[in-house]
Amino acid sequence: MQVPSPRFHWIAALLLAFAAAPSAAQEIQGQGGRGPAMIIKAPDVSQQMLDNADKQSVNWLHTNGGYSQHRYYPGSQINTTNVKRLRPVYLFQTEVKESMETAPIVVDGIMYMTTAFNHVYALDATTGQEFWHYKHNMGPITTFCCGPNNRGVAIEGGRLYMGTLDAKLVALDAKTGQKLWETQIADPEKGYSETMAPTVVGGKVLIGTNGGEYGIRGFVKAFDSRDGKALWTFYTIPDKGHEGVWAENDATGRNMKRDIPAEKDALAKNSDFYQTLGGGVWMNPAVDLASRTIFFVVGNPSPDLYGAVRPGDNLYTDSMVAVDLDTGQYKWHSQYIAHDVWDLDAVSPPILVDAKDASGKMVPAVIHGGKTGHVYVHDRATGKLIRYSEAMIPQENMWVLPTATGARMLPGANGGVEWSPMAFSPKTRMAYALNLHQPMTYHVEAGQYPGGKLWLGGAFKVIEGEKQWGRLAAVNVDTGKLAWKFDTAQPLIGGALATGGDLVFYGEGNGLFRALDARNGKLLWEFNCGAGANAMPVSYSVKGKQYVAMGCGGNTQLDFKRGNTLAVFALPD
Amino acid sequence: MTARLLFLLALLATVPAAAQDQEAVRAKAQVCAACHGPDGNAVSPEYPNLAGQTWRYLYVQLKDFNEGRRSNPLMSPMAANLSREDMMALANFYAAQPLKPSAFKVDETKAKAGKAKADETLCTMCHLGGFMGQNEIPRVAGQNYEYIVLQLKAFKARTRTNDAGTMTSVAQTLNDTDIENLGNYLTGLRP
């Protein structure tokens, strides 16, 4: 509990005494004095609607567009020929001026968006008029490394689901914003927190966890969407066998300079560190409905830079993992970097596509944009790596080991592709990846588990005087070649959106929200929204009119200018 | 306590407990006052100001003293017998006190060099812009110069290791001049 200062304690006491209304009432704010603005007809999103979300162009029902996570909007009302006339329709200002990473969900003309610190707003998606505003009653302890972020809600039936910074899962009534239930996912004092949007499928709410910088044991959990009851847990760190195969090379065949005999000695002395080995899962899984399999990527081991206390491959960190949707049973994994000491975790959400295999045959595949700067293409059935793309950004000195005084290696610890979800267009067969170029030195320092505090085991430093920049890369998934690249003044973080109008939308830390030609990377349109455009853009249509929405609230991790605005655009009537 | 307030307290059932808690915290904080001041503004610059600090930092430091991850001849015995609730209450109490400006005279040239070093070292990735801290990462804006210098040197010498090496690692890249400059810069970020 927050204890007020003594000068104010009697005021606080009065407030406590008179605010006797149920706590739920305090969490919701309506339109206060501007007449009733209510959701008349509650949304009712069926499983069939969720299954087919990426085949229609009215609603935006999943954070990443559909279970395949293409972030592709099939509509083409806004297209390469008319995008230059795109204009703001409204600017919705939230109460929270902090890092904004949300992807709004839109159903039947109602938009649900979140902000930092777990506020949720329900809006008229065509006007920005507010229906309700939910503020999560945050517990006293929250532990998160990289900003008080939230990436959005999931919807099923008439309910919304959100993970919170104090490691809870809450369900809200989509019509009223009233809380229906909440459940504790894990202990925030040990470093667990939630920033990802959940994924809902077939009555299950799927959610992972943050905490790879705190010595947690990562997981993906499934909860019953009706009551929040836990259904299954898949731990990303197995209690036995996390040492793996003692891989000498990374997934691209480069030697990682491991001292494997020394690691084996260390493991013989202590193999009991699986409880603090990290492996957060902090972006959405892709769901293959046909095989009832989910695919997610697992973050870095803990501590980030100091590997001596965690010998072995540290499975399943820095890996793509497939598990059974109904039971959480392991199916396969494919590790990108064994025994990572660079914080190059796998985080950008996987995308299900069909891609050509080595023999040129189209097969079901799953792809991931890595912090390493490669797009990896796996066989969906086995996990086998079919190919990896050419490097999207400069690489240098891979894999030099961190030292006490600092070793230079590119990419820096943020990537490559950070959490930023890629978009995939079935028309161009290209994946669109937001990359960072941040030269860094990696520093190692011995440090024992610090009891739920930040546990890097060293530090990252940017190199004074070296330019940082960003690059949107279009990667052909069938060849691994870069089709085109578009360089930006600042490192890129946020989501990409591809559309049937052959456009790619993305934002920059300087506030520019931009549309490129998906076929060749030509800049066609831009709008400066005044604060970092670092959220995940979405598109939808209401009464036949297409809209594009982008959160402009900046970013904590890269210290881009903060704001509190959701900007929504359409063509003039 | 005024008669009117007493009347209100009598009237409202939830209040006495809260007020008693507050009094209990103040009583517990009395032993801290000898060094940290009655309101968390330290009596001498080699001790840290606790006023305005993030409550989580204060809580985890007490916990680390209590559980032996951080040690100090003065603080370790003080924290040895505190319960989790005591530590949380004390941390909240000091976090809610206003931080007063330091009497230290900042050398502007050194402060400017300190800012450049801080930018290069990515300090604000954890301490946030303005060095106001977050969660378990401390606010260092407006902290006492002597205390900042002592801690940076302690991290560098590995006599303070309870942050699991992040600050040790950072401090290895700082020389004595850098540390002086950073002290000037951070102390000068006045409340």
Task: Report the CATH architecture of the largest domain in chain B.
Answer: Orthogonal Bundle
Largest sheet of chain B: none
Helix content of chain B: 55-70%
CATH topology of the largest domain in chain B: Cytochrome Bc1 Complex, Chain D, domain 2
* H/E topology pattern of chain B: HHHHHHHHHH
In percent, how much strand structure appears in the residues of chain B?
Answer: under 5%
N→C terminal distance of chain B: 30 Å
Count of discrete alpha- or pi-helical segments spanning 4 or more residues of chain A: 4
| CATH architecture verdict of chain A | 8 Propeller
Q: What's the name of the CATH homologous superfamily of the largest domain in chain B? A: Cytochrome c-like domain
GO molecular function, one term (chain B): heme binding
Protein name (chain B): Cytochrome c4
Subcellular location (chain B): Periplasm
Keywords (chain B): Electron transport, Heme, Iron, Metal-binding, Periplasm, Signal, Transport
Produce a short descriptive summary.
Chain A has 573 residues and is mainly beta. Chain B has helices at residues 3-11, 15-36, 55-67, 75-80, 84-95, 108-120, 124-127, 145-156, 166-171, 176-188.
Question: How would you portray this structure in words?
Answer:
The complex is a heterodimer of chains A (573) and B (191). By secondary structure, chain A is mostly beta strands. Chain A has a single domain, classed as Methanol Dehydrogenase, Chain A (8 Propeller), CATH 2.140.10. In chain A, a hairpin with a 4-residue loop joins strand 16 and strand 17. The longest helix of chain A has 10 residues, at 9-18. Chain A is globular, with a radius of gyration of 23 Å. Chain B is mainly alpha-helical and 191 residues long. Chain B folds into two domains: 20-96, Cytochrome Bc1 Complex, Chain D, domain 2 (Orthogonal Bundle); 108-188, Cytochrome c-like domain (Cytochrome Bc1 Complex, Chain D, domain 2). Chain B is 58% helix and 0% strand. Chain B contains ten helices and no strands. Chain B has helices at residues 3-11, 15-36, 55-67, 75-80, 84-95, 108-120, 124-127, 145-156, 166-171, 176-188. In chain B, helix 2 (15-36) crosses helix 5 (84-95), helix 6 packs across helix 10 (176-188) and helix 8 packs antiparallel against helix 10. The longest helix of chain B has 22 residues, at 15-36. The relative contact order of chain B is 0.14. Mean pLDDT of chain B is 88; it is low at 1-16. Classes of the chains: A mainly beta (573), B mainly alpha (191). Chain B: This is Cytochrome c4. Chain B: GO terms for molecular function: electron transfer activity; heme binding; iron ion binding. Chain B: InterPro entries: Cyt_c-like_dom (IPR009056), Cyt_c-like_dom_sf (IPR036909), Cytochrome_c4-like (IPR024167), Cytochrome_c_Oxidase_Subunit (IPR050597).
